[in-house]
Automatic annotation (TrEMBL):
Domain Beta-lactamase-related span(s) in chain numbering: 41-90
Leader sequence segment: 1-23
Protein name: Protein flp
Keyword hit for Signal: yes
Pfam family, any one: Beta-lactamase
PANTHER family according to UniProt: BETA-LACTAMASE-RELATED DOMAIN-CONTAINING PROTEIN, D-ALANYL-D-ALANINE-CARBOXYPEPTIDASE/ENDOPEPTIDASE AMPH
Source organism superkingdom: Eukaryota
Keywords: Signal
Keyword Nucleotidyltransferase tagged: no
């Protein structure tokens, strides 16, 4: 073998260490990513299954699944496994009244749901044009646990993974556009390529290029900082929100991304337009990931590996990193934010002759124009005593337990249905308190101190007027 030919083989070997062969990652790079995901991210989060999709330069670099999509039957996850990709489907705050109109940014799935209903037909057509053959919505008729290729969700209870009640997913049906979509790694790879190609699929411009660029143009800036805090840190900061996508910067590169959450599924898609790179990951539980081993930090790690900037030394203990938050101004420190956590619950100055609150006074029907209706009744508890009981649709069943305090009007919700699994997965320490206003005759819910909605006594949705709207009321027309 000639010295020149040996040199040629050596160069080929070195190049294969850092660059994909035929559009795929080389085995050494795949092994780094596999070990990182299995030994760090899945191990630390106790995730039952994880899906990964990576595309670059119009090619699928790596699509795969890890773990078990069905633990009881020992069925592996793969690149055809359908995961809920979500979109923060659990509303945590009500926009109305939180900030003055058109002064600030607040994320609300309700409005995405309305937009999704208006564009439902176009969305189905888009999936077909992108050849996303397996992507679908949750349906009331679904038997999710027994449907092909579907990942089952799991949550942690006393340190053990328990199967999530799949019937709970159907709560999302009225707002499927905001969080009820299931997709596979193969289909998400096609979607990321569609995003990175500015709406083009092959030779067909499915969505006008100017529209795609408009969707990725910053419309709601967020407070951010580019300051590094340690020498070997990298800048990871939010810039703001565009139209359905967040925008930020990682290591100097623009990133367009969005996270999704439909309990207990958690996902994130990140694209780096200038590098023509896209990364998507999703987990089937046990809920929200730990901050230092989140989908965001996983994407940064995969980004660095693919860019050849470093080789990770994987160990069972994740490396501490400041990248996910060191350069982002904490929410509580924003100088222009109107929302503040309620550290104490205000009580009205009730008339002294009104007497102590009686359970019968709270019994009744309550409604909210955005969030629906519920009833408060009296029901026999396990001790044989009548106790206040909240009935909010199929799953919102809870006992109202009066909190101690003189003339207290605050009740802790003690869940009486599998909806409690939502809180095991999302925030096991979460407490929801119902505060009764004796003057206004309303109930306001506080979740960990934050108001999440006020419901008026004897308010029925059928009695409310339709949402007022008139041409020109929403600013300059852009379409």
């Amino acid at each position: 073998m000639s010295p020149m030919f040996r040199l040629f083989l050596l160069c080929c070997n070195l190049l294969s260490t850092f660059y994909p062969i035929n559009g795929q990652l080389d085995p050494g790079t795949r092994l780094q990513i596999d070990e990182l995901i299995e030994n760090v991210y899945m191990a630390e989060n106790n995730s039952p299954a994880l899906g990964l999709g990576v595309v670059k330069d119009g090619q699928v670099y790596y699509n795969t699944g890890y773990g078990l999509r069905d633990i009881s039957n020992g069925i592996d996850a793969n690149n055809d496994t359908l995961f809920f990709i979500g979109s923060n489907s659990k509303q945590t705050k009500i926009c109305a009244g939180m900030v003055p109109f058109r002064t600030n940014f607040v994320y609300d799935n309700g409005y995405f749901s309305m937009a999704g209903e208006l564009a439902a037909g176009q969305l189905d057509n888009l999936f077909a044009q992108l050849d996303m053959q397996t992507t679908t919505y949750i349906k009331v008729s679904d038997d999710h646990d027994n449907m092909p290729n579907r990942a089952l969700g799991y949550f942690l209870l006393d340190g053990q993974l328990e199967k999530y009640n799949s019937e709970l997913y159907k709560r999302t049906v009225p707002m499927n556009a905001a969080g009820g979509i299931l997709s596979s790694m193969n289909d998400m790879a096609k979607y990321m390529q569609f995003i990175l190609n500015n709406g083009r699929v092959g030779d067909v411009q499915v969505v006008p290029e100017e529209v795609m660029k408009w969707l990725q143009t910053l419309s709601n800036p967020l407070p951010s900082s580019g300051k590094l805090t340690v020498v070997n840190d990298k800048m990871a900061t939010e810039l703001g929100y565009s139209l359905g996508l967040f925008m930020g910067v990682y290591d100097g590169w623009l990133t367009v991304y969005h996270g999704g959450y439909l309990t207990p599924f958690n996902s994130q898609m990140s694209t780096f337009p200038e590098l023509n790179l896209g990364i998507f990951t999703v987990t089937s539980g046990p809920g929200r990931l730990l901050p230092n081993v989140s989908h965001a930090t996983l994407h940064y790690d995969v980004f660095d590996i693919i860019q050849g900037q470093r080789q990770l030394k994987v160990s069972p203990q994740p490396q501490q990193t400041n990248r996910a938050g060191s350069c982002i101004i904490p929410f509580d420190n924003w100088s222009n934010v109107y929302v503040r956590k309620a550290t104490t619950i205000e009580r009205k100055d009730f008339a002294t002759d009104a007497g102590l609150l009686q359970d019968e006074e709270i019994v009744g029907h309550y409604g909210n124009g955005q969030s629906g209706e519920f009833d408060v009744i009296q029901k026999l508890n396990g001790s044989g005593d009548f106790q206040l009981y909240l009935s909010y649709g199929q799953w919102g069943q809870a006992w109202l337990s009066l909190l101690p305090g003189e003339e207290s009007y605050n009740y802790l919700l003690v869940w009486d249905s599998d909806i409690v699994q939502e809180f095991y997965a999302t925030d096991p320490s979460s407490e929801i308190i119902a505060v009764y206003d004796r003057v206004v005759r309303s109930i306001t819910f506080l979740e960990n101190g934050y108001p999440t909605g006020t419901y008026l006594r004897d308010q029925y949705l059928d009695d409310l007027p339709t949402t007022p709207w008139e041409a020109g009321s929403c600013g300059q027309q852009t379409i």
